[in-house]
Amino acid sequence: MLKAVASRLFAPLAPDVRQLSNEELALRAPDSAKAKEELVTRLSDDVLYFLIAQLKSVKFDSYSQRQCALDLLQEVWLTWLANPARFRVDAHSNFKAWLFSVARNKLIDLLRKQKPELAWEDADSFVQMRIDDDYAQQLIDQATSEHLAKAIQDLPYLQREALSLQLEGFSVQEIADITHTEKESIKTRLRYARGKIADAMHVGESQ
């Protein structure tokens, strides 16, 4: 009796899942409901925001757009929850990036079915105004949230996607991995995107 009580008293405390990294949680997830719940809670808003931003290419009303994003988010989590072991640290170093890759694949499948005519890229139409990078960054930094959101929404799909992922904190290499794209292509999309946004801000200033 005393031995059993002592073993409980002096047993090592279970780690607080809130203190674990995404990757540590993903490794525990196959055997831990708490790890699964923490990951869903921690990352759902980020994935949902990304999905909504990309769905702006499709002419939904705001409610339908959000509902579609929520449906996709549910599919993303169900894909992982059906087999949490499919994420392996030896094959994927970043769980959030891996999850965004799943979300992106499901989103692309939907958009190709719903909007086959969607303008995926606009690589040849770089901003006509040749403004330097420092001035472009200054214009973007000074833009209001409303104007910046509108300028991002008007970008071609793949440029908006790359910029949205960068705003989520992903590196250029991680964006390339998520989108299955060459790193240099991502750099080009980001450069075009920032240039077009700066151009829109400059035009707004001059009006």
Shape: globular
Number of helices: 10
How many angstroms separate the termini? Answer: 83 Å
Strand share of the residues?
Answer: under 5%
Task: Describe the largest sheet.
Answer: none
Please state the structural category: mainly alpha
Helix-strand sequence: HHHHHHHHHH
- On the 0 to 100 scale, the average pLDDT is 80
User: Which consecutive residue ranges, at least 5 long each, have pLDDT under 50?
Assistant: 8-13, 123-129
Helix content: 55-70%
List the helices and strands and how they pair.
Elements: H1 2-9, H2 22-28, H3 33-55, H4 62-81, H5 95-114, H6 133-142, H7 145-153, H8 157-167, H9 172-179, H10 183-206
Q: What features would you describe in this structure?
A:
The chain contains ten helices and no strands. With 207 residues, the protein is mainly alpha-helical. Helix 4 crosses helix 5 and helix 8 (157-167) packs across helix 10. Mean pLDDT is 80; it is low at 8-13 and 123-129.
